[in-house]
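[recover] target loaded
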């Protein structure tokens, strides 16, 4: 009976089509890199950009416990499938952060023992406000499930695609392998949120509420937690190159297949806005530097 209660079953195989919560709970393990020889990191030095990017991801994965606290303040706490999934999700993401930290330290990057708290202190008041509003909306509408599930599907798919982009780009074989293992977990996370969001979005009112909230409040992964300059930087680092356009479109198109979400272009719009800002600021900066240089001459 328990497994029937927890199982979410779709018609086809694949992350987009079905997710079995019971199976996920039974098989949940932390990511395991004990077979990788981290003493070999010295053979493959990380680039400064890789260190910056991995630090960002380590921080966001480590912040999952705070996201969990916020989600559990909403109606999510009343859904047994969701609470079963979230328990394993938080555990797995803790080890994502832990693994990235382990890898960074093995590569000679010092990480503060208090890092998780330091990241929490950086989080903006906007995140706190949104948590309050989310828990209030829950009291007013039974359709709020659709909102956080859709939001979660976007975040997990972005993280999954991001890890795959980075794994494909790095020249460090140890890092590539770690990122592929993390991406495998992210695929399961995405599958849960996506399949459950599709069920919740069957209702027209749920679709309307989700559109209303996401159009006003949706933020890319890490925004509100990391400084804006870092969010902008990582968006460009992961998706700013030409193939990144295809990745952003793929994420948007997958989310747009959810009921009532055909309007969604969040990743592409964020990417285009960021590229536009860069095009505007780069010539202005060059002109400023040139002016300073000519004064000095
Ligand atoms: Fe994760
Ligand atoms: Fe995840």
């Amino acid at each position: 009976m328990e497994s029937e209660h927890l199982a979410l079953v779709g018609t086809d195989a694949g992350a987009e089509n079905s997710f079995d919560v019971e199976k996920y709970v039974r098989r949940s393990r932390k990511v395991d890199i004990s077979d990788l020889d981290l003493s070999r990191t010295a053979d493959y030095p990380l680039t400064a950009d890789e260190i910056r990017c991995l630090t960002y991801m380590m921080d966001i994965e480590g912040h999952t416990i705070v996201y969990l606290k916020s989600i559990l303040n909403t109606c999510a706490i009343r859904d047994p499938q969701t609470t079963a999934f979230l328990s394993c999700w938080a555990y797995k993401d803790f080890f994502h952060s832990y693994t990235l930290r382990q890898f960074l330290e093995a590569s000679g990057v010092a990480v503060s023992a208090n890092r998780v708290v330091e990241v929490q202190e950086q989080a903006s008041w906007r995140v706190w406000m949104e948590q309050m509003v989310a828990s209030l909306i829950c009291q007013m509408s039974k359709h709020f499930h659709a909102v956080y599930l859709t939001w979660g599907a976007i975040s997990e798919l972005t993280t999954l695609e991001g890890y795959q982009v980075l794994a494909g780009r790095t020249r460090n074989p140890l890092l590539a392998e770690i990122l592929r293992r993390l991406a495998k977990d992210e695929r399961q996370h995405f599958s849960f949120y996506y399949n459950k969001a599709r069920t919740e979005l069957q209702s027209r009112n749920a679709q309307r509420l989700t559109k209303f909230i996401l159009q006003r409040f949706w933020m890319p992964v890490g925004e509100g937690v990391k400084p804006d300059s870092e969010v902008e930087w990582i968006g460009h680092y992961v998706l700013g190159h030409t193939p990144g356009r295809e990745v952003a479109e793929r994420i948007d198109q997958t989310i747009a297949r959810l009921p009532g979400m055909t309007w969604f272009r969040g990743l592409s719009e964020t990417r285009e806005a960021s590229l536009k800002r860069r095009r505007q600021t780069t010539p202005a900066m060059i002109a400023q530097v040139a002016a300073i240089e000519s004064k000095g001459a």
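[recover] notes: Residues 266-296 form the longest helix (31 residues).
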